[in-house]
């Protein structure tokens, strides 16, 4: 028989074909779990936007997902995204000119998002009464 014959094939180590070492498997599972959770967060944010703005954006869109995930990678949360949506929906929903900007490309753009979120934080402050007008009494003269 020749060396090429399958009958003479010798394996030096036991076959681990199709299996990864345990440490790598755990790391892959962790990464997959993180990706799934991140995707679920994107779905949650886009569904919230669709509900608030009466739109039909797809969370499965790569461009949409990239925008929302970009904000997550900067440390923002689902709650932050929803606050920004609430703020801009309140400002723009009833205005036909601005209503068209209730979309992921505007709301979750890196240059806009922080500003929208700050607007929402400002609106979280309790409303104070307007300042009282200054009353001048000229009858008292200079002091």
Automatic annotation (TrEMBL):
Segments of this protein annotated with the region Disordered: 119-143
A Pfam cross-reference name: Phg_2220_C
Residue intervals of the Phage conserved hypothetical protein C-terminal domain: 45-117
Biased composition (Basic and acidic residues): 134-143
Superkingdom field: Bacteria
Protein name: Conserved phage C-terminal domain-containing protein
Organism (species): Sporosarcina psychrophila (Bacillus psychrophilus)
